[in-house]
Amino acid sequence: FLQLLFQYRRLFRVIAAKEIRPRCRIPAVVCWVDVVLAKLGDLINLIATEFSKSRPQSSLPKVLVVQQQEDSLRAAIQLPDNWDSLPSLLASDRASPAAKRLTIRLLFGSHVFSPCVSGTTIGHES
Predict the structure, then answer these.
(1) Of 74, 82, 124, nearest to 100 (Cα)?
(2) pTM of the predicted model as reported, rounded to 2 decimal places
(3) Residue 75's pLDDT is what?
């Protein structure tokens, strides 16, 4: 599942890169897969804590909730292009702490939750 998401991500980034005009500053390319990965990381965190955090966002001001969502999205943008390269991000000096946290969540979900649910890991095709 995650390998497929990363393949879609690569495809959509290539398409977006073709749309960038020459001599323009290269923007950060955000695609729908980055949003899914950010949300998936949040979901894995919520499940790992057994939903013990009783909706902490509901008590935060809206501006902080939006900032948290944007930070999660920026973390997803920093992930490598291949699922198999994800673990190497943990040793990177250039990756942000948020990207490393998202990496840990995705790896945790792949190696701990997925076998419990399906009998296989979600990062590896069976």
Answers:
(1) 74
(2) 0.76
(3) 92
Chain segment 74-124, per-residue pLDDT in tens: 999 999 989 999 999 999 999 999 999 999 999 998 888 766 655 554 455
Residue found under tokens 């966002």 = 57
3-class SS letters over the chain: CHHHHHHHHHHHHHHHHHCCCCCCCCCCCCCHHHHHHHHHHHHHHHHHCCCCCCCHHHHCCHHHHHHHHHHHHHHHHCCCCCHHHHHHHHHCCCCCHHHHHHHHHHHHHHHHHHHHHHCCCCCCCC
Spatial distance between the Cα atoms of 115 and 119, rounded to a whole number of angstroms: 4
